[in-house]
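User: Um, what's this?
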Amino acid sequence: MGFVVPKYKHSGVERNRVKRRLREIVRLHMLQLLDPAVATTPLDLVVRVFPSAYDRDYDTLRTELLQALRRLT
C-alpha cells in the first residue's frame, strides 16, 4: 500500500498527519475487508490524496477510503 500525498501548500507536519491516519485506517479496517484469496497474492495499491483530505477528520477519511475499496472489490 502506498500513499501519494502532495504538498498542496501544506506543511510536512500536516502531510505526515494525513499519511499516519491513512496507514492506521488500512491497518485496522481495510486489511480485514480483502478477500482471503486475494490477500495471499501480491497486491500493489496506491492511493492519491486530494487537497480536501487535509480538512477531513479521521472518521470521514475512514468512510471515504472504505467506500473506495468496496468499489474496487
Notes: The helical segments are 12-33, 36-39, 58-72.
